[in-house]
Amino acid sequence: MTKNIKKIVLAYSGGLDTSAIIPWLKENYGNCDVIAFVADVGQSREDLDGVEQKALLSGASECHVVDLREAFIKEYVYPVLKTGALYEGSYLLGTSMARPIIAKAQVELALKVGADAVAHGATGKGNDQVRFESTYTALAPHLKVVAPWREWDLRSREALLDYLKVRHIPTTATREKIYSRDENAWHISTEGGVLESTWNAANKDCWAWTVAPEAAPNEAEYVTVTVERGEVVAVNGQTLSPYQCLYELNQLGARHGIGRIDIVENRLVGMKSRGCYETPGGTIMMEALRGIEQLVLDRDSFKWRQQLGLEMSYVVYDGRWFAPLRQSIQAAAESLAAGVSGEVVLKLYKGQVTAVQKKSDNSLYSEEFATFGEDAVYDHRHAEGFIRLYSLSSRIRALNNKN
Length: 403
Prior knowledge:
This is Argininosuccinate synthase. The protein is α/β, with parallel strands linked by helices.
């Protein structure tokens, strides 16, 4: 441990881990000044109510709550959406996208208050430690980093509860609250508990936002989404900010059980983990964007967009937001998204979202060319020469084999 630290800014959530970290830092770093930093990225209002008082009761000298909701969706979520990124084919990167904006705002506060260190509550087993510390390094490499989970000897939830009890520090956590959850405007994740065995099916306690698809309404609901340059700008004809668009779609999607996944993923640190993720509004947004892309992007452009999405999923998941590679991928996606504008009607029903109507002024779809009826614009005889040239290498290979 570096004992000459005078002031630390801690990424604070008010949960069990960070509530214990505040007194632990003061005890193990020479009674240093601990400032709690709380990022409002759209988590439950219950998590934010009273969070400042809770931080002060835990021993923090100050608590700063910063509203990052609009910036999170506009500057982090929307750029990733344009690439179509899905980590390992299904995860919409809810936690991954939030970490860089949280860490960036934390660094900005640390520089403002003259802190010489930053701290986080990520464990040594997870991805978040990499995401936080990669951001610290990219933006303020002179700041010292304190990661208590890699230093202390508290190894369980029970140990943390006992630690706080001895010090008379209040917490709403209990031994019965066995799930670990991360929530922001984009998604909520659930890990631990019954999910630690892959042979256990997720139960109703593993889902926090969405109704079970089988309990969703028996009547489908339709929503119209307007897209401009790859960004959702309106819901049902009402122009809204990025965060407001997401909020409205979250309400609709959750009501119809949309956006649930139960996956086992590969963590960056080498182990596999299982989690239940709920991303109702994001799933609707993704379907809307892909619907417009189908009209607007030609075959090679769409293939390139898919490649960008695959690369972006790893860049974001691995915490490389402030690396040149992310900037390069984003620039390419922005170029492709320039023409991705239009309107989509989506059907929400029993956990499924389907684009049933779509239109765009930039559409490459031509009913005249695509029709199975009689047309005056396409000469079927032209296909013969195309096929002959397209398969020329196969013809030459076959002749060589024959000879």
